[in-house]
């Protein structure tokens, strides 16, 4: 049975206790809901992969209540500290070499010499993480191959009966996963665009290598080759016209003639668009299939700010299908 826990003192205490006992608790962050487990326990982490039905062991992000707790696990650098000061708590994940006293399990790190750390924003996740008292591994709380959940109901639809509890802190504000930045190399590498934009990072980092630098040699996280966000209906990008047989994922002024339309943001606001992306894909896929539509067409989106993260998710949703 999966318990739905309210985000009050009792609910947070119960969620934290479950994690300490090796259980699985989905928890809301500012980005998406994470499927939390004690990151220091191989057994608890193995339950995450089983519940998600993940065919491969991808490395997981460990979540902490504050920067000091996070940096205790890694080899810290001045740049990492500067980034933490600028963006934590918030939607940035840093990949750094394991520290001497690192307690994160090998399974959570997929055997890599680096670990991914993050301090999410929000009163509820921070209290939950502080009370848990251990690093909390947390991939998105969805079955493998499905869209990331941005509220507790999405989590239950996908994982009910497979996890111990969901700590319901309401809908997620950002609605897209965190930015993943690899700081274990000479020049920082953007592994996944996300809630903190490349422009924002550059203010602190200077040079950053990112996928669009070399289209062919795009650096990817180990877990990023597969499409994670696949709707059942085929998705095509950069649509400049749309047919009545298609659902339209619009941005700005919607193209006329679609069978069904979801506008990410009529005013062309990228933040609004990011927060409405997964809900839009769910809607167009579910309702589109009910109505017998044959595909989804997405209008072009600006390649700046959060647009990079939105396009990254759309490309992956449109890409070859395999689970992640
Ligand atoms: O916003 C988020 O980041 C959400 C919330 C719950 O925090 N979590 C999330 O986790 O999106 P997940 O497992 O879906 O994505 C983790 C990403 C993957 O692309 C993985 O390959 C990368 O982080 N990653 C984790 N550890 C890594 C490492 N040591 N080196 C390189 N990439 C790593
Ligand atoms: Mg995911």
UniProtKB/TrEMBL annotation:
Its EC number is 2.7.7.87. Residues 9-196 form the YrdC-like domain. It is an enzyme of class 2 (transferase). Its main location: cytoplasm. GO terms for molecular function: ATP binding; double-stranded RNA binding; L-threonylcarbamoyladenylate synthase; tRNA binding. ATP binds at residues 54, 58, 63, 114, 118, 140, 148, 192, 229. Keywords: ATP-binding, Cytoplasm, Nucleotide-binding, Nucleotidyltransferase, Transferase, tRNA processing. SUPFAM superfamilies: YrdC/RibB (SSF55821). Belongs to the SUA5 family. Required for the formation of a threonylcarbamoyl group on adenosine at position 37 (t(6)A37) in tRNAs that read codons beginning with adenine. This is Threonylcarbamoyl-AMP synthase. It comes from Tanticharoenia sakaeratensis NBRC 103193.
